[in-house]
Amino acid sequence: MIHRRKQRTTSQERSDLFDGLPDDIILSILSRLCSTARCPSDFVNILFTCKRLNRLGLHPLVLSKSGSKTFAIGAKNWSEQAHRFMKRCVAAGSVEACYTLGMIRFYCLQNRGSGASLMAKAAIRSHAQSLYSLAVIQFNGSGGSKNQKDLRAGFALCGRAAYLGHVDAIRELGHCLQDGYGVRRNTAEGRRLLVQASARELASALRAVAPSALHVLKRQLRNKRESNSNSSNLSLLSDFGLNNLNLPSEAHPVNRFLTEWFGLFNPDSGSDTGIRMCSNSGCGRPETRRNEFRRCSACGTVNYCSRACQAQDWKMRHKGECSPVAAAVVDALVMNNLDGGGDGFDDAVVDDRTDEVEGVGGGPSE
Ligand SMILES: [Zn+2]
Ligand SMILES: [Zn+2]
């Protein structure tokens, strides 16, 4: 009896302790949780705990902080309820919600205007992913006709995303400058950006798997730079024996959503008349009109939404699958070290921005 009374008192005290906490403190804890959640259930389960946590959890202050993984639902779990929750987060001012819902509306729900304007809302607030995705849309004229491509706008958006450190944007910008695509040609600057993109990608991968290896790489780079101090040539990472690294970068959750969505709901996938997906497995973007994407000029069997996806997929997968002719050309380039940088693979096969299906096909550009 005494024991039971003691138990009741303890639970009474506990609930008093929670009830006694001011809303501000709980809001700040919930905001932190909402921004760092590793999956939607991390946050959503809290909402079902009690009335108070439900009320405070849906407070605009909390929802405005929501991170990308708070919306990392699978495409098969898409529902009106999920849509409503995202709209609520958009209204609260979450840039991640604007981007995620923007991508879903633009590509999956084919509500192009509303999708693009949501991404623009996040882009204005310097959200790098939104800036880059809008750049891809401008480069391809997505949602419109081939004549609606705006290369200069694409380049400007990409430049802003690159300035914010978005690796794909830096790579895209490098290729644009090398080829004079949407901007005046500047090969040296383009090459510098390509090195920077690879270095950033490598650094973030090393930071994740082997922090000590990063110091070794930094020392190697410093020594290399000192020994090349009189040369104007920039070295690519292959000069350091790093050309065969297969380091996947973590895709944004919405890219996984898109991949899953079009795996489930694209009735035309795989048919000759259908809309094709970007062949880079981490991307998930579909064409918005037939023959929108550029294809590999060597084999013609893969299609990409952007140069960045093409470059990434080449490194990760396609290099081993592309036609033997392309491999032979690339081998010859590497053996003769024609570009002086030693990264002949990417330059030879991946860099063919003008090779769209409507355009002239043909082999490697260099
Ligand atoms: Zn892509
Ligand atoms: Zn190919």
How would you portray this structure in words?
- This protein has 366 residues and is mainly alpha-helical.
- Among the domains are: 21-125, no CATH class; 253-350, no CATH class.
- Helix content is 58%, strand content 1%.
- The protein has 17 helices and two strands.
- The protein has a two-stranded antiparallel ribbon with strand order 1-2.
- Helix 6 crosses helix 7 (95-108), helix 7 (95-108) packs antiparallel against helix 8 and helix 11 crosses helix 15.
- The model is unreliable at 230-235, 238-247 and 334-366 (pLDDT under 50).
- One zinc ion binds at residues 278, 280, 283, 285, 304-306, 309.
Query: Runs with pLDDT <50, length 5+?
Result: 230-235, 238-247, 334-366
Q: β content, as a range?
A: under 5%
Residue-averaged pLDDT: 79
Range of helix content: 55-70%
**Cα distance, first to last residue?**
88 Å
